[in-house]
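Hi V.,

You were right to ask for the full record rather than a summary. Here it is.
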Amino acid sequence: MSYRSRLHRALIGTCTVALLAGSGLLAAPAQATSTQAPATVRTLREAPAEREVASFYSNYYDAVLEQQSEGKNTFDIRKEYLDPKLDEALNVWAEEHKVDPVLRRGEPIKSWELDYKGDADGFSTLVLTEHWQDDAPDTKVLYTVNVSTNVIVGLTDAPA
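Predicted structure:
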């Protein structure tokens, strides 16, 4: 199965679960309920930097799957949200590592969540955690957003 086919199937499955859960059609019997959050839940505050990273990642992943609502590809999405120096650095990273520089792997994600870490010196720091279909260890990616411009200026592997 090709990379894009796996991503496409993963996204369809995730969206189906989200739609069914949100509409109440995916209701479990009382004894089967769990305290765990559904796989599609993302943690978001209402800070502009968080909305920017969430919007970037959602649009980027849709572009990877060739399902972006405006027909944009990953390069278009990166140019829209990222600082040009960061975009160039991601090109170099992708060439060195031979995988997608934003997703950090070539596999479909199961879900993702965003965790705001704070603001300092005009920048917001957030960690985006990717949960994988194959149950591989989570990937944590550190995002840095310029507070005054809402432009993503940093995207690196999060420190362990």
